[in-house]
Structure formats: C-alpha cells, structure tokens
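Render this sequence as a predicted structure.
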Amino acid sequence: MLEAYGGYGRLWAACYTQVEEGIVFEKDRAKAEVLARQRPAWAVYEGDCVEALGAGVGRHLLANLYDLDPWGDPWPALEAAFSGERPRPGRLCVAVTDGLRGKLVTGSGWACRSLVWAVQQYGNAALFANYRKICLEMFGRLAEAAGYGLVKWTSYYCGHSQQMTHYGAVLKKTS
C-alpha cells in the first residue's frame, strides 16, 4: 500500500490496520512521528510526497493500493505516483479524496495548474458542474500513460456544498 498525505493515521486506523507493510508520506513532522509509532513495519517518510514520489521514493515495495487524501489538489501527487520509477502490479486500486472542487465553486479553476487543459476544453464556468467527468478523463490519461487500463471507476461529491470529490479506480496492466 502507498498512502500519500498520511495525516494522523485516522483513515489507516479505520481501514488498513491489517496491512502489514506499506509506504506513507507526510510533510508535517509531528504527524510523521505519529505515523512512525503507529506503523513500525512501514516505510514512513517525512517530506513532500510529490517530490518523493517523482524521485521514486518507496519503490522498494510493490504497492497495489494507492490512497491519496490531500483535501486539495491531488493531481500533482497522482502524476508523480504514476510517472515515477516504481514496480507496477498487474492490478492496482486507487482511492482519492479530492478537495479541488472547492476552488471551482468560487470560479478559480483557471488559477489551478492541474486544470489548464480543462479550462480550455470546458471553460472556467463549467468546471464545477463537470468535475467528475474531468477527473475521469484526467485519471484515464494518467493510467494509460503508466500502462494501465481502467477496469472500474466510481465517484461522488460530498462535503459542504459538495466541494469534495471522492473517487476510486481499479486498474489492470496493459503493457
């Protein structure tokens, strides 16, 4: 398992305690220390997950589940995870908590580097209404570039004013 944005490990405690080894990233020192105590057999990294993933940190383990929970823009970390040098399992599951839609409700999507192409294709005013479709398109491109085909996709909006997007995917290696 590869978990970016580990926080205080509440999601891990609720869902993943049976996972014996994995990789977790957290840039806040106090939170990283909690994660290290919580998961003594895991590789716990204090630092920016985007830089670390892009550099291949954690490639010593074959992770078949990626869990990204940035509560903001997940796309830089997703791009780093899919483009960095690391072993690729035949089947990969990905779960994301995406808070970028909160920026879109204010009409500021144009200021987000991850959405430049979507602003050009859909127009800034249409990003909020079409964000799940945009996520599917972006995710599909990342998966394909990493040699995966999309087997299953699910997504929904949640949170205050539907500003959060949760999505999950099951991928199968094509090459």
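Summary. The first strand starts at residue 2 and ends at 4. Helices lie at 10-15, 29-38, 49-54, 75-83, 101-104, 116-122, 131-145.
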